[in-house]
Design a protein that fits this description.
Length: about 160
């Protein structure tokens, strides 16, 4: 049979012994279930953020490989064309600039995608942090004041 001390039940676990001990002092009255629920939600947010980051990283890596392959192909074709039929220097510079511009535009697209992905992940973290702070404020409002005769966990 479980022993009780006030409203804290001792079922033999170390956490329950700690809860029992802390429940005797009103200053340390604490809602352990709410704390565990908050930590579960923290872990769920972390898992979700990792999924978002992983999907983003895969997309970025795939796009980067495509851009690299295209840039190498463009520059190889430009080099072969230059060797096969040497033309005006200005034409070669113009074609080279076009290849470089295309590669740089791809890099800018990658940077934009990375920035947007990071913003999504940070938005998720910020949302969870705000919820955690709101929970802490709610717990603080419900905690008994020092000198109170209340013995037990806060609701």
């Amino acid at each position: 049979m479980a022993k009780t001390n006030g409203n804290v039940t001792d079922v033999g676990g170390a956490a329950n012994a700690f809860a029992k001990m802390m429940g005797e002092w009103p200053l340390f009255a604490f809602n352990y279930e709410a704390m565990m629920d908050s930590q579960r939600r923290n872990w769920a947010a972390l898992v979700e953020a990792n999924k978002l980051w992983n999907e983003s990283a895969q997309t970025l890596a795939t796009r980067q490989m495509e851009l690299t392959r295209q840039a190498m192909q463009d520059f190889a074709e430009l080099f072969e064309e230059t060797l096969r039929k040497p033309g005006a220097f200005e034409d070669q510079i113009g074609k080279s600039a076009a290849c470089t511009r295309h590669a740089l535009e791809g890099i800018c697209d990658l940077a934009d995608h990375a920035t947007k992905s990071n913003a999504e992940v940070m938005k998720l973290f910020n949302k969870r942090m705000s919820e955690t702070l709101d929970d802490a404020r709610a717990y603080a409002k419900r905690a008994p004041h020092a000198g109170s005769t209340h013995v037990g966990a806060a609701d």
